[in-house]
Automatic annotation (TrEMBL):
InterPro entries, alphabetized: A_deaminase_dom, Ado/ade_deaminase, Metal_Hydrolase
Reported cofactor(s): Zn(2+)
Record GO terms (molecular function): adenosine deaminase activity; metal ion binding; N6-methyl-AMP deaminase activity
Transmembrane segments: none
Name the record gives this protein: Adenosine deaminase
Annotated SUPFAM superfamilies: Metallo-dependent hydrolases
Provenance organism: Apostasia shenzhenica
């Protein structure tokens, strides 16, 4: 961490600077309190036995396998449309509270016949959640294709007004590695249909030990052919063949990238592919022996395009400010380094140039406001 700056001051800096979040899974970001409430309700209805799940929800460290067991539980708890909308609203509010000014929220559209849910109605529930946000000003795109202007402040501007947080939100649709080619294709078609409600790309995620690259490739190619950017969970486990196939595909971004070998990095370097870095997630799922050996260190030194992200704020009890702090504390970054790391992330977003332009202005304003601290 930069010299002359205490822990508390650095933590406050990480919280106060504007930030961009590009790798956050909706259902991985559920608040603990909401998760417990949902579990209790389902317990009372007799749908689950609450005491069986309570300790799973409250457990701190989890292996990658345990994380995916927990996701199965999340999917039981969060199956109806109202709950999806509620979670979306809360997750966006939580990111805005950390001064995230642009959030690319990813989620896997789900079919659930018993609940009358289709992939399309799932996505509509997510958008309804965005519409329900009142405590912060969220800018997203609604179903009729109009860019929503920021919600109006609740009170007229006055001296007692607290400045309202503003956040741009766009969506990525995830293909789960358990899905078939047809299901993956359905998600990409939905994304293309729903571009008008703020869907800006496709993600491939899910348990990395499940599924074959060849299953998802047709759908990912279809996305690419139709100009929809793709980000891949790449190298979350050591799987040389798949990592190479993924790099052959030339995705617009990759996430995690824990198990790339030197040759793979050479290719990634040449193509300057931005990497979504999830420090706490990688540490907690035991992708590395300790945080100081994380590939962030070398990539940062080599000035490779990087963006610090959270992955699953609920699952890993973290937030984006905390991830920035962790990077500073582990790799000796100072205030200025963090600010420009955050600023550079604007260039890797999937939203259009109009949004990029506004974000650049937000960072320029912040740069002027923070000039003393940035240049001291
Ligand atoms: C791979 C992950 C993940 O889509 O239901 N997901 N996939 N690696 C990770 N690192 C730990 N974290 C989350 O959000 C939850 C889903 O996101 C994916 C998994 O498929 C998980 O079921 P949604 O909103």
């Amino acid at each position: 961490m930069g010299e002359g700056c205490g822990f508390a001051e650095m933590k406050e800096w990480c919280r106060s600077i504007p930030k961009i979040e590009l790798h956050a899974h909706l259902n991985g970001c559920i608040r603990d309190s909401t998760l417990l409430e949902l579990a209790k309700e389902l317990g009372q209805k007799g749908d689950i036995i609450f005491s069986d799940v309570e300790h799973v929800i409250m457990k701190y460290g989890r292996s990658l396998t345990e994380c995916f067991q927990l996701f199965d539980l999340f999917h039981i708890l969060a199956t109806d449309h109202e709950t999806i909308s509620r979670i979306t609203k809360e997750v966006v509010e939580d990111f805005a509270a950390e001064n995230v000014v642009y959030l690319e929220l990813r989620t896997t559209p789900k079919n659930n016949i018993a609940k009358g849910m289709s992939k399309q109605s799932y996505l509509k529930a997510v958008v309804d959640g965005l519409k329900a946000i009142t405590s912060v000003d969220a800018s997203f795109i609604n179903f009729s294709g109009r860019a929503e202007s920021f919600c109006k402040p609740l009170h007229k501007s006055g001296t007692n007004d607290i400045k309202r947080k503003k956040i741009y939100v766009r969506l990525l649709l995830s293909i789960d590695r358990r899905e078939t080619t047809a299901a993956a294709m359905e998600t990409v078609s939905l994304a293309l249909e729903m571009k008008e409600c703020g869907v800006v790309g496709i993600d491939l995620s899910g348990n990395p030990v499940v599924g074959e690259w060849s299953t998802f490739l047709p759908a990912l190619m279809y996305a690419k052919e139709h100009g929809l950017p793709v980000t891949l969970h790449c190298g979350e486990i050591a799987n040389r063949k798949e990592i190479q196939e993924m790099l052959d595909f030339s995705p617009e971004r990759i996430g995690h990238a824990c198990f790339l070998e030197e040759d793979d990095w050479e290719r990634a370097r040449l193509s300057k592919i931005p990497v979504e870095i999830c420090l706490t997630s990688n540490l907690r799922t035991e992708r590395l022996s300790s945080i100081d050996v994380h590939h962030f260190g070398n990539l940062y030194k080599a000035q490779h395009p990087l963006v610090i992200c959270t992955d699953d704020t609920g699952l890993f009890s973290t937030n984006l400010s905390n991830e920035y702090y962790l990077a500073a504390a582990t790799f000796g970054l100072d205030k200025k380094d963090l600010f420009y790391l955050s600023t550079n992330a604007v260039e890797f977003i999937f939203a259009d140039d109009g949004v990029k332009k506004v974000l650049r202005e937000i960072f320029q304003d912040a740069e002027s406001r923070l000039a003393v601290e940035l240049h001291s």
